[in-house]
């Protein structure tokens, strides 16, 4: 889902363009992280992907963690204060007539591509807290123009920290699972809701 936040105000976005951006996130985002680690630490691509360290049990726990955090987020979003916060994705998704297959694809793209970039790459150099802040800021959740929107950023920031600490403690695929499940749960809630979760930012 997070790939959408690079596209605020892009109301003419088509589903084909959305899929292209998904593929860019999945395949393009990890490249600078891998190249930096390869050049600085002589890390192989297999080591970068942490294939041998993948733990099915931690992946399952990550999926459950992402779902629980998404449910927490959805509850918080029902508070009156959040009805005043413009976020750009609700009407866009409805207009593009996205379905559950789209939701799974885009969630996988964001979960894999962004975690490889931020947790496996950026965090290696900046550390957990700066990376967590950068991750939230790049997605547009901190706003000087619309200060209320920063409330959503403050709600997502602990999730970003969780991804960072989870990466250090349980590995890459735990963080990917959390990220994927969180995005997918929000997607499903959005697609099954007849009304936008939040007002659209059309300015």
Features:
disordered N terminus; mainly alpha; 203 residues; 69% helix; disordered C terminus
Question: What does the model show?
Answer:
- By secondary structure, this protein is mostly helical.
- The protein has one domain.
- Helices cover 69% and strands 0% of the residues.
- The protein is built from nine helices and no strands.
- Helix 7 crosses helix 8.
- It starts with 14 loop residues before the first helix and ends in an 11-residue tail after the last helix.
- The relative contact order is 0.21.
Summed up, the domain count is 1
Radius of gyration: 17 Å
Q: How many strand segments?
A: 0
Q: Segments where pLDDT lies below 50 for 5+ residues?
A: 1-10, 199-203
Tell me the span between the first and last alpha carbons: 21 Å
Q: Give the helix tally.
A: 9
Strand content: under 5%
How does the overall form come out from the CA principal axes? globular
Largest sheet descriptor: none
Share of helix, binned: 55-70%
What order do the SSEs take from the amino end to the carboxyl end, as H and E?
HHHHHHHHH
Mean pLDDT: 86
Question: What class, by secondary structure content?
Answer: mainly alpha
